[in-house]
Design a protein that fits this description.
There is one protein chain. By secondary structure, the chain is α+β, with helices and mostly antiparallel strands. The protein has one domain. It contains two helices and four strands. A four-stranded mixed beta sheet has the order 1-2-3-4, covered by helices on one side. The radius of gyration is 11 Å and the shape is globular.
Length: 72
């Protein structure tokens, strides 16, 4: 699964877009976020500029599955 597929699946499941940010562009506060750093794909909850429950994955597929699990 990639970001585009995840975005479509979350929409089908009725998860509001303001619950997540899959591009780290624009507003990221109080959302589950997907990003990339030098360690790999990262998933975290952003609040007040801090990253909570941060997990790192080696593939986009694994990261997207984690976000799907967190939001559904």
């Amino acid at each position: 699964m990639n970001r585009k597929e995840l975005r479509n699946l979350l929409k089908i499941k009725g998860v509001p877009e303001y619950y997540y940010n899959l591009d780290e562009v624009g507003e990221t506060d109080q959302k589950v976020c997907l990003g990339i750093d030098n360690q790999g794909w990262i998933v975290y909850y952003s609040e007040r500029g801090n990253k909570f429950d941060l997990l790192t994955f080696s593939t986009e597929d694994e990261a997207c599955k984690d976000i799907l699990k967190r939001l559904t």
